[in-house]
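Q: How would the structure tokens look for this protein?
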Amino acid sequence: MKHALDNPAFNALATGNQNLAKGNDRIKYFDKDVAPFVGFSENSQENFDAVYDLIARENPMVFVSRDKIDIQSRWNVVQNVPGWQMVYNGDAFDVDTPDLVPLTDVHVPQMLELTKLTNPGPFELHTIDFGHYYGIFDGEKLAAMAGQRMNPVPYAEISAVCTHPDYTGKGYARQLMQFHVNRIKAAGEIPFLHVRDDNTRAIKVYKDLGFEIFGEVNFYVMAK
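A: Here is the predicted structure in token form.
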């Protein structure tokens, strides 16, 4: 039996993120203003060709796979970003996080500015629709944030963990991570995340928190 994280985008769109899903039984994807991810029930060349015809937009799409795949279709593979899936199977953290503020649509301009500055991964105008985004503020300024993205039940992905360069070293990322681990576990789900394999600093932080490497993952950026 295949694991939910073997095909995280499709399984998320079929389960925990089905309210954001577009497509059909074979091909599922998010609106371009939410996330660039696309997933298939089967990773076949026929499905790669089918999604090329199905989606009219010119924006690049991102296909996520545990396996390395030779995409031989009309898509131009602009980039293959190797990474790791990391899973948290430990206990909840005994911490208080009183300084975290739930983020809403009014905060989106600052969220876009922060993610553009720190580049934690794809973040679009309506990525906030995934829900569960929280931030730490210095007055009116968003200093750090993190949220939830793909939700291939029973797993929930912690994502967009980023801190403004003026506020690094204050433990904000750790505080946000611990909060989201506790929130996800309280919902009866399992925290996981994706990280580039060359992001050694982040990998060390996640390991120190108790996340363990579950397996390799590949992000294929595809353009028409």
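The chain has two domains: 4-81, 86-217.

The first helix runs from residue 8 to 14.

Upvote if useful.
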